[in-house]
Amino acid sequence: MSDSSSKPPATGGPGNWSFTRWSTIGQLEALEVHHPLFQATLFLQGAHLTHFAPMDERNWLWLSELARFQPGRAIRGGIPVCWPWFGDPLRNPPEIRKRIASSSAHGFARTALWRLEDVRESAHEVEVSLSLSANDDFQEHWDGHALALITFSFSIRGCQIALTTTNLSKAPLAFSQALHTYLPTDDIQRTRVLGLGNSQYIDTLKDWDYVSQEGPVYFEGEVDRIYETGEALTVVTPSGKRKLTSVGSDSTVVWNPGPGKAQRLSDFPDSAWQKMLCVETANAASDYRVLNEGQSHTLGVFIGRA
Ligand SMILES: O=P(O)(O)OC[C@H]1O[C@@H](O)[C@H](O)[C@@H](O)[C@@H]1O
Known about the structure:
Blueprint: E1 2-5, E2 20-25, E3 28-35, E4 38-43, E5 48-54, E6 81-82, H1 94-97, E7 115-121, E8 125-134, E9 146-155, E10 158-167, E11 173-175, E12 177-184, E13 192-194, E14 200-203, E15 209-212, E16 217-218, E17 223-227, E18 233-237, E19 240-247, E20 251-256, H2 258-262, E21 276-283, E22 289-291, E23 296-305
Antiparallel strand pairs: 1-2, 2-3, 3-4, 4-5, 6-12, 7-8, 8-9, 9-10, 10-23, 11-22, 12-21, 13-16, 13-18, 14-15, 14-17, 17-20, 18-19, 19-23, 20-21
The protein binds 6-O-phosphono-beta-D-glucopyranose.
C-alpha cells in the first residue's frame, strides 16, 4: 500500500530532508514525517492529514479502515479541509451560495491537489506548508479568486494547523470553512466534550433550530450541531483526553453519524460510529467570514494533551 522514496511527485518539491519523505499511498502522493519524537502522514490531495502521533503513541486521528486513497475522492478520516464553503451549499448564506456552482458539500479543497511550499525541520519540530490557488481552474465549482495557505506544525506536544485565506479578487469574498477533525474513541457512549456548556447550537437534525447547551456534550445516537463558540475544548474518551484550542473561529461543529447515517456514509464501516467523533474548528453558519481585496483570515487549531 505504502511505497516510500525520496522521489518527489510532479506536483511536489525537492526532497532533501532528514525526517520527511515522499510516499505513495493507494493512488495518492503523501509526505511521511518520521521524526525521533513524532510521526505524521500528510496527503498533497486535500492537504489532508491522516496520521499524527508522538512516538510510541497511537494515531491521535481517526482514519476509516475503508478509506480509499484515490484522485478526486475525499479521504474518510483524519482532518479534511472544508473550503471555501462548509457543508451543504444550500445551507450557506446567499453571499457564499452565489459563487458556488456545485452541489457538493464542504467545498473543493479536500479533493484538490495542493502544492508543497515548504518543509522545515528541527530537533523539536517539523513544519509543512502547502498552498491552493483557487483561480479559474476551479470555475466548474466556484466563482472566485483566493489563495489558501496551510501550515502544519508537528511536535511532541501536539499538532498545530493554520489555514490562511487571502482574497485575490477585487470584489469582497464571503466564505465558510472547517478543519474537520476526526478523533478516535474506544466507546462513543463513554465520550464527552467539555467547554461548550453555556453556548447555543444549531441542531441540524431538528430543522436547524437553536438549542442551549448545558454541561458536557454526550453522544446518544446521531449528533450534528453547529455551536456558536470557538472556546477551547476538551474531548474526554475512556483512554484519555485531548485539548483543542482554536484561533480565528467562533463556531464549532460536533458530529457523530450514529448507527443510521453510518450505513449511508461512503467508506465508513457500519459500526464505526461507536469509535469516532468529529470536532470541527469552523467558520460556519453566522460565523462565515468576508474579506475585502487583499485581506487575509487565519483559522487554526492546536490539538494537544489535556
Ligand atoms: O460525508 P461528508 O461530506 O464528508 O460529510 C460528513 C459530515 O460532515 C459534518 O461536518 C456535517 O455536519 C455532517 O452533516 C456530514 O455528514
